[in-house]
Write a structure and sequence with these properties.
The chain is an alpha+beta fold and 577 residues long. It has helices at residues 2-47, 51-54, 99-104, 106-135, 171-180, 258-261, 273-282, 312-316, 366-377, 388-392, 417-421, 433-446, 454-457, 461-483, 492-497, 499-509, 516-524, 545-564, and strands at 144-150, 162-164, 185-189, 193-197, 213-214, 217-221, 227-232, 247-253, 264-267, 287-291, 294-298, 329-334, 356-360, 382-383, 410-412, 425-430, 487-491. Strands 1-7-3-4-2 form a five-stranded antiparallel β-sheet, with helices on one face. A hairpin with a 3-residue loop joins strand 3 (185-189) and strand 4. Helix 14 runs parallel beside helix 18 (545-564). The longest helix is centred in the N-terminal third of the chain and has 46 residues, at 2-47. 37% of the residues are buried. This is WSCD1 protein.
């Protein structure tokens, strides 16, 4: 009996060792296979997707990498994008630019976009690190600490400009931002939010309640939850005067009752523009209105919307010796103060019943449209992606899951059938493909606010980029026209030219009611912090004739598809160059 038990025990020990060995071998083999696949994906991503793989073209045309313009001399009208479109047969070589061909290539184009998006996100890390190093020299300026004060996001104590940097905010950064705009006080909250104003908050709090560390500076306090760390703004450097950005808005007919229209006023002999602007800035109003010796401060309102400017000669003919207007007309100036009537934003308190997309081709102004929608509705917008740079600038919906339904709409560049049918409705933003391609190429090499260099434009990647992404611009629109359930078509150029009417359409489509004053506030802050800076090349034409022929064919295809669905066609400026 003992011998049998001993044999069984010996067998079990051998089996246990064998199982351990097989498990280890299995894990090692799986790890090696995973490493091999990862290496392959990285190599493919670093090389990029060749244009002739993402978008097949006839063999005789691949020698130059783009479509031969000779094939476009006699374009045949493509089929309309209607119900019968699914029954189209496979296109021949001379039909490679029809709507059916474009939509059939869409999955490959979306894969191209995804690979490029993730590669761009990884490329931004060195840029952000460099920006953090460049910021360190600004920490010398601290200003005078006043104390910790209560902060209500709905009724702010510092009612001037607002800035967000959820990654690199420092006390000095906030101080300098407020000083440049002529504010007296700078307050920081939540470790990343900066508020400016000229009136000290009344409700003081306990010092220990300001306990949030600055996101960009360890050891420094940047307010807390509903608490402001307030500093008195001082000069940036000795001998350097603050920048007074007073912008002339034009000559306008004065409202009938100036006292009822504007909440603050001043009568001053020998009144000058600088005196009136200084007075209104201290009162924290964005407009300085001058009529004779009278200075009025306020906001754009329904009574005074600043839409119907008159001939400047009407004001120049009634100016006095100080350069101010008299009589029925007045001069209007924009002070450095930001109009903050529309800067408060929040997530939806209850989940939205309607899932709305804000869809566009990359470079079509989606970020700008989100800025307008957020300020008009007061609700954050979401994103199918996560862009850390946008999150750091105040787009808090970037970090919220795109399916949470806590945002008013969701940004997306996707255009596959599955991705489109997930949404109940969509605002489809369309921009001139020439402008869109350049904007997206700029974003790739210089981020959301910069410009690509001459070296970038002259590289081999630019023609490959145009060849790949031009057809994506067309297929994006065609896919949403085909699979979208309820669409509002918005052309970027129309939104830019007629902001208030188009923004009203968008807000009504989102089923949100807003006041006219809030829309006028959005108009005052129309650019936000997303206008490209740096040296912009004048009379720069990066498109060759072959590129133009290619893009123009796609323009005609999209225009016909829009009209076939009873939408207005593309704006006239899209018409082939």
């Amino acid at each position: 009996m003992a011998k049998a038990f001993f044999r069984l025990q010996k067998f079990l020990r051998r089996t246990q060792f064998l199982l351990f060995f097989l498990t280890a071998a299995y894990l090692m083999a799986g790890s090696l296979l995973l490493l091999q696949r990862t290496r392959l994906v990285i190599q493919q991503g670093s090389r990029g997707t060749p244009a002739n793989q993402a978008l097949p073209v006839p063999d005789e045309m691949t020698r130059v990498g783009i479509i031969d313009p000779r094939t476009l001399q006699s374009p045949q009208p493509g089929p309309r994008l209607l119900v019968g479109m699914d029954a189209l047969q496979e296109p021949t070589l001379d039909q490679r630019h029809s709507p059916h061909w474009l939509t059939s290539r869409n999955s490959e184009l979306r894969q191209l976009r995804r690979r490029w998006f993730h590669r761009f996100a990884s490329d931004q890390e060195p840029l952000q690190t460099a920006g953090l190093k460049a910021m360190k020299h600004t920490t010398e300026h601290k200003g005078t600490y006043i104390g910790c004060f209560a902060h209500d996001s709905r009724e702010r104590t510092l009612k001037g400009a607002v800035f967000y940097d959820l990654r690199k905010m420092t006390v000095a950064r906030c101080q300098e931002a407020c000083a440049e705009r002529a504010y007296s006080y700078a307050g920081l909250a939540y470790g990343a939010e900066c508020y400016c104003g000229n009136t000290l908050p009344a409700a003081a709090s306990k010092p220990e309640e300001c306990n949030s560390e600055c996101k960009g500076e360890r050891g420094s306090v940047c307010g807390g939850v509903n608490r402001l760390s307030v500093y008195r703004v001082e000069e940036l450097r000795a001998g350097v005067r603050r920048r007074r950005n007073v912008v002339y808005r034009g000559c306008f007919r004065a409202p009938e009752n100036l006292t009822d229209t504007f909440p603050a006023s001043l009568i001053q002999p020998n009144l000058t523009v600088e005196m009136c602007s200084e007075f209104c800035s201290k009162k924290e109003f964005p407009l300085a209105v001058i009529r004779g010796q009278e200075c009025y401060c306020g906001y754009p309102t329904g009574r005074f919307p600043l839409h119907d400017g008159t001939d400047g000669l009407r004001c120049s003919g009634t100016r006095n010796a100080s350069g101010t207007a008299e009589g029925a007309y007045c001069l209007v100036y924009q002070t450095p103060v930001q109009d903050t009537r529309c800067t408060d934003r929040k997530f939806l308190t209850t989940k939205s019943k309607v899932f709305v997309a804000l869809s566009s081709f990359p470079g079509a102004g989606n970020t700008w449209a989100r800025h307008l929608i957020e300020h008009a509705t007061g609700y954050y917008t979401g994103s199918y992606y996560f862009d850390g740079a946008l999150y750091n600038k105040g787009f808090k919906g970037e970090k919220d899951h795109w399916r949470s339904r806590r945002t008013i709409c969701v940004k997306t560049h996707e255009s596959g059938k599955t991705e489109i049918e997930m949404f109940d409705s969509a605002i489809l933003l369309i921009r001139n493909p020439y402008k869109s391609l350049m904007a997206e190429f700029n974003r790739k090499y210089a981020g959301h606010l910069g410009y690509a260099t001459d070296r970038n434009w002259k590289s081999k990647e630019w023609p490959d980029f145009v060849n790949s992404y031009a057809s994506w611009w067309a297929s994006h629109v065609l896919e949403w026209l085909k699979y979208g359930k309820r669409l509002l078509i918005v052309h970027y150029e129309d939104l830019k030219q007629s902001l208030i009417p188009k923004l009203k359409e968008m807000v009504e489509f989102l089923n949100v009611t807003v006041t006219e004053d809030r829309l006028l506030c959005v108009e005052s802050n129309r650019d936000g912090n997303f206008k490209r800076s740096g040296a912009k090349q004048k009379n720069f034409e990066p498109f060759t004739q072959e590129m133009k022929d290619l893009i123009n064919r796609y323009i005609l295809t999209v225009d016909e598809a829009l009209r076939g669905r009873n939408f207005s066609g593309l704006p006239r400026e899209y018409v082939p160059r």
